[in-house]
Specification:
single chain; 0% strand; 9 helices; globular; mainly alpha; 229 residues; 64% helix
């Protein structure tokens, strides 16, 4: 039974989960409030859209994820919404339009280096969002989608600065090591890329962070061997 409540994310602690909860509350509330203040005619458009809830999970729960960085949040949601509007206006079958919107949103986000899972929801919302979204046309991608995403990122940057997290994420090396990094065999970027290619999977971690983890594993292994002598 205990195993069911074990964190599925490496490094996740109860404190981090509570911090993510607080961040989600503050992030979505402030994003909705800012949208309400900035939109002149907010009654004709939603103040905040559902994909922002999914974006908030990434921004506040796993801020180190490559999928949670500012450009994926803003670019991924905006590009996907534009794709969704395009297929909503050009494909008569709503079922086919929905599939094309999500599929091509994945493709364009990948090409633009802003892959963001909630972008798929933004594309789908543009297709099935109803008369209000349909009447907004391409402006829906900017008001409220892009504006919501920008607000959420700004809140995320401020929140993580105050709570001590790095966002936008930058890998941080540890200082004060008793064993010099020069004594370790540092991994080569090509070796890491080759190992990832061997596994044939996509992992929710950046290559720089993966290299840092490998270095820390080597460091602690060297410490353990030194202590055993």
């Amino acid at each position: 039974m205990k195993q069911l409540f074990k964190p599925i994310l490496a490094g996740a602690t109860l404190r981090d989960r509570m911090r993510a909860c607080a961040g989600g509350i503050i992030g979505i509330a402030l994003t909705s409030l800012l949208a309400w203040l900035l939109l002149d005619d907010w009654a004709s458009a939603p103040m905040i859209v559902a994909p922002m809830g999914a974006s908030a999970v990434l921004v506040f729960a796993i801020p180190a994820s490559p999928l949670a960085q500012p450009w994926p949040v803003i670019g991924g949601n905006t590009i996907s919404a534009l794709v969704g509007v395009f297929f909503a206006q050009t494909v008569t079958s709503p079922h086919l339009a929905a599939g094309l919107a999500v599929g091509f949103a994945i493709l364009l986000m990948s090409l633009a280096r802003c892959l963001h899972p909630p972008g798929g929801a933004a594309a789908l919302t543009a297709v099935i969002g109803g008369p209000i979204v349909a009447s907004a046309g391409y402006s829906f991608a900017f008001l409220p989608i892009a504006m919501n995403a920008v607000c959420l990122v700004l809140v995320g940057i401020a929140y993580h600065f105050l709570s001590g997290h790095s966002y936008p994420h930058r890998p941080q090396a540890f200082m004060g090591q008793r064993i010099s990094e020069r004594d370790l065999a540092p991994p080569h970027e090509e070796d890491i890329s080759a190992a990832l290619a061997d596994l044939g999977e996509t992992f929710d971690i950046g290559p720089e962070d993966l290299e840092l983890i490998i270095r820390r594993v080597d460091f602690h292994a060297a410490q353990r061997r030194e202590a055993a002598r």
